[in-house]
Every structure is written in C-alpha cells, then in structure tokens.
Amino acid sequence: MIIDIHGHYTTAPAPLGQWRDAQVAALTDPLRAPDPAGPAIGDDEIRESIETNQLRLMDERGIDVTVFSPRASFMAHHIGDFATSAAWARICNDLCHRVSELYPDRFVPGAMLPQSPGVDPATVVPEIERAVLELGAVTVNLNPDPSGGHWTAPPLTDRSWYPVWEKLVELDVPAMVHVSTSCNPAFHTTGAHYLNADTTAFMQLLSGDLFADFPDLRLVIPHGGGAVPYHWGRFRGLAQALGRPEPEESLLRNVFFDTCVYHQPGIDLLLEVMPVENVLFASEMVGAVRGIDPRTGHHFDDTRRYVEKAGLTPDDLAAVEERNARRVYPRLDARLTAQGR
Questions:
Q1: Has 51 been annotated as catalytic?
Q2: 249: left (phi over 0), alpha (psi -120 to 50) or beta
Q3: Which residues contact 169 (CB under 8 A, 6 or more apart)?
Q4: Within a 10 A sphere around the Cβ of 214, how many other Cβ atoms?
Q5: Which of 110, 187, 195, 338 is most deeply buried (CB count within 10 A of its CB)?
Q6: Does the global pTM surpass 0.90?
Q7: Are the C-beta atoms of 132 and 331 separated by less than 8 Å?
Q8: Where does the Amidohydrolase-related domain lie (predicted)?
C-alpha cells in the first residue's frame, strides 16, 4: 500500500470559497454574514471536485490512500478573531470528513485548528477533540505562526502550547506543523513562508526540551523539512554550540519529515541524511506546485517517481511508502486494519 500523508482539499467546490468571502466581508459589514450552518454543497459537487482532480491523479500515480485536510493557504488564521477561525475550521473539517465518507477506502481526514493571533492555544482543544472523536481525523495541522508571516506567537516549546500537546498525546494523534497564507509581502506564501516555517519550527524544537515533557508527542515537518536535511551540519553545529545534545538523539524519536520535495536530488539527499524511519511518503497533490517539469515531462509533485528512484532497498521503500505512516499515525493504522488492509 502507498499512503500519502499530505493532501489538502485545494479543489473544493466554489460555494466553500464564496461562504468564506462572505464571512470575511461580514467582519466590516455584518449584514453580509453567511449562513452559520455553512455553504450548501451536494455530494455530487464533492464527487466531481475529487474524481477529476485528486482521485484521478492518485489512480494515475498508484497512490492508495491520502490523508486529506483543509486547504492550508485557506486557513488564514490572521483574518478576524477566534470566532471567525472557529466557524471556518468547523466547516472545512466537516467537508474533509464528507470526502472521507464518500471515499472511505481512499481518503482519511485530517483537520485544521481554529487558531487566532494572540489567543491562548488551549482554545483549539475542543476542535481537536471533535475532529478526532467525531469526524475520525487522524492528524491535525498546527500553525506555528497564526499571524501570517509576522511571527508573533511564542515558540512551540513555550508552556502556552502545552494543553495542545497534552491533548494530542492523550488522543495519540500527531500534528503536522503547517503554516498558512503569508500576509507579509516579504514572504511569498508557498515559496518562502512555508519553508521558513518548517525550518523555524525545527530550530525551536532543537533549542528547547519539549520532548522531555512529552516523550510520546509526534510532529511531522512537511515539505522535506524546509532547510533542515539540506543543512544538517549547521543544525548539528548549532546544537553543539548551544550545549544541546545531537539532534538525532534529542529530536528524531519525535520529529518526522515528508517527501514533498520536487526534484530527484532533493529526495536523494533527504533519504541519505535522514534515517529511513523518519521519512514519510507525501506529495501535497494537488498543491502549490502543479506544473509539469519540462526537463522530465512529469509533474513536479509526482514524488513517488523520485522516492522509487532513490536507491532504497525494498524493505526501506515499504517503510517510507506505508509502514512509517501507520506507525506515526496510529488512528490511520487502526482505520486501515478495520478495513482489512
């Protein structure tokens, strides 16, 4: 089985975006507020949006299952207040749950959180519980920068995050550390802000003792870990200078990386530097990089091609493409096992 742990509903039917536009407009004109029950989206609209996009590409590329969460750039936690984000998260999470109900063998839900700048992170705990226990989410996307590129939030090691970590450990659910849209013109959303955040989150973890307090917490850093694997010597050297243990010893029991790296040399280096057990197959398809590479004739985000040309042994390849995901996402494994897979 090939499991893609990083998929977003980037092709959601138009009424979702229209509802969000109305919600944002209502921040200055309450008369434009949308129906609090959410947009009217029929099952056939969902099927059309999925079958012509993600499901078609999954079939073409031989991907069996995708962990499917709301569109990351649409989370936009910097817009409005906590109530704004809470309503938006509920609607988006419900929609991903509906996809998983329509295609139970192909999509497994993930969830976004109702974060808001300057708001206590503990306020997201009820949505974590609802998404996991009621909607069947096997992971959550956690934004380390709800301000949208201005980095006003405390580091992930700060005690204000502890109620979130406690709930994730209690539910045995990992978090993917994933930012959203940048509203800072200095940082392009997908070309800079995403990769900055991946790198920043890892450095925060390296500088602190989060996993001493939460030895069972699991965090996935997407997009190949940002700069981390490609500057591993820098991070080892910084750990030494800061009097920290080697990152392999202090972090890699709890921190994992995905394969959303869109060229062969990048995947090769990721798999050479990082232990195989810390790398999980992913493509983020259909995502930020949707085009065809003119040098290869294949889509940039067809990451299975790169992983399977990286020279892994059959056992290591199976670990990256399936076993690691089932280990890091135990609720995913339980769902697949219940299906006889």
A1: no
A2: alpha
A3: 214, 216, 217
A4: 17
A5: 110
A6: yes
A7: yes
A8: 3-330
